[in-house]
Amino acid sequence: MQQLVEQTQEIDFQSEKYKDAYSRINAIVIEGEEEAYHNYIRLAELLPNSKDELIKLSKMENKHKKGFEACGRNLSVTPDIQFAKKFFSGLHENFQKAAAEGKVVTCLLIQSLIIECFAIAAYNIYIPVADDFARNITECVVKDEYSHLNFGEVWLEANFEDSKAELEAANRQNLPIVWQMLNKVADDAKILGMEKDALVEDFMIQYGEALSNIGFTTRDIMRLSAYGLAT
Ligand code: Y39
Ligand code: FE
Ligand code: FE
Ligand code: FE
């Protein structure tokens, strides 16, 4: 704990180096929230029985986006949205394609498991090293993200046997993209005080727990969650 406090005090939130890295990480988070907003609206069309709940989740994502835009403004940082759009393009395209094919299991794996776990890991690691303004916002946001992850878990658990094969294929297609995204952001994250190892560890814990809650065995989880990690 002492160590965390000291580390926080060392960060100069107004240095050019910090603000340069923040222009990309902040953009990733803003663009991620924007895409999550649209993804839950799309999911509401695909799952009419859960429409009201999914629209509620989409509205939360839109609120998160506004919160993180305020974090950038607070540090006088202009988010590099073009960089962020490219950062998300792999998962974005795979979500769009799956949605067009009516593959709701793949859409849920991409948004409600992979992206939510990525968000939870990133926000958990960010909170202790954030500026006071951003910490307050991120603490509220991360609570919501757990509820989004929970939506995916509950739906996929209820439909586990029918979803298993598609989940395996979607995991194989999309998890390697997450490891590539982590590599692309590792240097900037480090400047913000976030270690890549800690991000990987937290993601693995969230994702492994999610797969377990859905019904996968420990053996399956080991195989699924490390897929593409070493490449
Ligand atoms: O469900 C959500 O709100 C997720 C869209 C938001 C994505 C956040 C992505 C965070 C990755 C940041 C990487 C920083 C190291
Ligand atoms: Fe939009
Ligand atoms: Fe969000
Ligand atoms: Fe979310």
Give keywords.
single chain, 231 residues, mainly alpha, 9 helices, binds (1S,2S)-2-nonylcyclopropanecarboxylic acid, binds fe (iii) ion
Polypeptide structure, described:
With 231 residues, the chain is mainly α. 84% of the residues lie in helices and 0% in strands. The chain has 9 helices and no strands. The protein has helices at residues 2-10, 16-46, 51-74, 81-100, 104-126, 132-158, 160-191, 196-214, 218-225. One fe (iii) ion (FE) binds at residues 36, 61, 116, 119, 145, 148.
What portion of residues belong to β-strands? under 5%
- Unreliably modeled segments: none
User: What is the overall silhouette?
Assistant: globular
Strand tally: 0
